Amino acid sequence: MITRMSPVALVAVSLFLTGCGGGAVAATDHTSAAPAPASPPPASPSSVISAEAAPRQLPGVGPKMLARIPAATEQVVLVTGRGKNSPLSALALYERTDDGWQQTASWAAHNALKGWSDHHMAGDLRSPIGVYSLTDAGGLLKDPGTKLSYDQGSGFVSPGTGFEGEPLAGSFDYVIAINYNRQPGTSPLDWTRPLGSSRGGGIWMHVDHGGPTHGCVSIAEDHMKELLRTLDPARHPVVVMGDAASLSH
Prior knowledge:
Layout: H1 7-16, H2 63-66, E1 75-81, E2 88-97, E3 100-110, E4 116-117, E5 127-128, E6 130-133, E7 136-139, E8 149-152, E9 175-177, E10 204-207, E11 217-219, H3 221-230, E12 238-243, H4 244-247
């Protein structure tokens, strides 16, 4: 006999199998269109940001990673991990100007317990390396004033404690979905996984709880609110994330 799970149950099970979305319980089901690529495809030669077009390059980001940033992108969240196996990183916000990329903010951050992976799998406790668009946000608390699509709901909860015994309550008060293995244009709670559930998902930026994450990137609550207010979909924001050595390629 085939047992059919309800949409809410499917969301909850899917999130349990993912990164930082693992503790969330979805309150609603979201219907999405055909799956889109999990990350922006490599840019064509004409769209690569050249030294002439942007004399102030993103520090520590090499030509291969730069080539993955869409030509239309004018905001970059750069997450640089301390090491391939480290849960510590730094997050910096860059705006593209006539003079190139200019840093406007920089904050301490956490990433996954075991560091980084260029082939993220569900449960590997590593954050995915790459360039991913940022289109959707949400949280348990009301919209702090973001221009991103924002889904407020009771599904943004994270019970229990973290890897260092710290409480996880409040971690999902504010989140930004990183478009790794998800359908852009949907709630961060949406369970659609274009690459399949084995490749993980539910990779977010969220409020820091004082320790490593399952796969997400976390920063202090005030910084999350500032980031939410700054990101503008009209400027096609992306996150460039990984350990320093991987980003330098």
